[in-house]
Amino acid sequence: MRLGVCYYPEHWPESMWEDDARRMKALGIEQVRIAEFAWSRMEPSPGEYDWGWLDRAVDVLGAAGLQVVMCTPTATPPKWLIDRHPDILPVGADGRPRTFGSRRHYDFSSPSYYVASERICSAVAERYGKHPAVAYWQTDNEFGCHNTVVSYSPAAVGRFREWLKARYKTIDALNRAWGTVFWSMEYRSFDEIDAPVATVTEAHPSHRLDYRRFASDEVARYNRMQVEIIRAHSPGRPVAHNFMQLFTEFDHYKVAADLDVATWDSYPLGALEEQWFAPELKAKWLRTGHPDFASFNHDVYRGMSKLPFWVMEQQPGPVNWAHWNPAPLPGMVRLWSWEAFAHGAGCVSYFRWRQAPFAQEQMHAGLNTPDNRLDIGGSEAAQVAEDIRAVLAAAEDANASIRSKVALVYDYEAKWLFEIHPQGADFHYPRFAFEYYSALRGLGLDVDVVPVDAPLDGYRLIVVPPLPVVPADFAERLTRSGAQVVLGPRTGSKTADLQIPASLPPGLLASVLPARVWRVESLRPNVTEPVRLAGSASLDDGVGRHWRDFIETGASDQDALEICARFADGHPAYVRSGAIHYFASLFDDALTTRLFAGIAREAGLSVTALGDGVRVSRRGGLTYVLNYGEQVHTLADVPDAAFVVGSREIQPQGVAVYR
Ligand code: GAL
């Protein structure tokens, strides 16, 4: 459990650096991330490197006893490079190249950028790879930020054709897989295939899905190149990338597979404002963030990180980039930090040391104000450092890794598929995955977020948010796990080529769920369908939203499913076959929670209804309780708790840690 900070020595007079480093250390910070946007200072003109300033910055930090997280600067190619190689600029869906003047203005498929990146990464890695103060690396910065994964450049289209050739081998196979006979879209050779963009009406969905898969693979290829260069010059120093859960245009699992540390950037207030949350929720959690949003991300990145995951950038105060940018309530920066550690983080690093008085992010808070006084976030970071000492002193296993009994399957392709073929305009995959996650967390359950190909043995409860494409061995792995399994609507509804399975959904899951989804409908946001549980006296136990699967349950008794709930018109809303449960709609939060509670109990898990905004996590021998709510929360039912941080009475925005 360590603290870090993001620092930009190139933004400040050199005369300030020593004092900055000394104050960081005094605050309890151990790691300092630098240089991810500093290319124009590292190489002011082509081939003319200026390392002097960076050498001195690294030395100053090292001399103060700080560890440096060195970054490759490829998120911001300098002006001279763009002028020399305009093909570096990515091309938007409107067919126009994006322009210089902000950041991430590069195309993952541009051959000149690949070469330029190899060159600058080698130069940085060679220079600092063995520096005693450099302990970690970060590749680039937030792949996918500002919608920069998919490009429609000639270079991208050329590489896409190669990608298609490798996948389908023959053009006939591609034509069959996509179903291009529809609307006379058949191709005679791979070279005839363009990017699926600027068509008269929607472009072919299988074509689009493959373009997204291709674009995602391009990110993984580009990152791998950087990782290999760093490893060659800096053996033994872990390599990280800072993901953002909001930027899901590429498969984070695939990129993380090449890294040592998966890290993510946590901006709970900005995320709440920019995401799907209803206006009431945006108002309710305005200054705290939603109690499950950061935690969902922690569990996502914990699962894909080989070493303990980190929060590479932690919101320290108001940000600049959301539509509205409220200030966190006092206590929240500390609470967010503890939430990360409770979920297994190895480091929480604040963005940024000091607010910049110039350029795009001048309205973004830091731990210090632009005139260099400690801001609220800074004092809270200092308190976290003190808490960490108490926690580490009290529990030898405080840094333990986490393995939960509940798994939630989370998949990037599913997001792209629903974006391409939503069938209901607001069918937003991350939202539905989040809602299932949130229901589980509200019951006090710890959750592992896993990819669809993860080993599932050892879990008691496996929750699968809508997952159209399932792997061939999924049914077998689910049953072999012995867990109770909840499948969301639309699971198994498509083949990998994005076609309807021959036997209709649930397709490859039919062996464990003998049902036939013969019709579907999507529901407008103002339309809900009442749901009644089997044997319930109530007419209406909750509602289905967004979507309905119409399920045929099989004629013979032998393969008949148990119908656990019906819609008002009699169609099944929730069916099960042994341990496999299938929801035919997305139920409201209360009904989802109620159903999950029952199924979790059946799985032998103990569930607790927590207070509004109260969340619990367990790591090592310690239990962490976080209060996002407005009321004091009293821990009445743990008489033997020995408190390491806080006490039985947890104030709003407070934290308690007990053994
Ligand atoms: C992140 C980004 C940082 C900074 C920050 C502001 O997405 O990685 O460079 O822009 O947002 O909140």
From TrEMBL:
GO terms for molecular function: beta-galactosidase activity; metal ion binding. Residues 405-606 form the Beta-galactosidase trimerisation domain. Substrate binds at residues 103, 141, 321. It catalyses: Hydrolysis of terminal non-reducing beta-D-galactose residues in beta-D-galactosides. One of its GO terms (cellular component) is beta-galactosidase complex. The active site is at 142 (proton donor), 313 (nucleophile). Keywords: Glycosidase, Hydrolase, Metal-binding, Zinc. Pfam families: Glyco_hydro_42 (PF02449), Glyco_hydro_42M (PF08532). Its EC number is 3.2.1.23. It is an enzyme of class 3 (hydrolase). This is Beta-galactosidase.
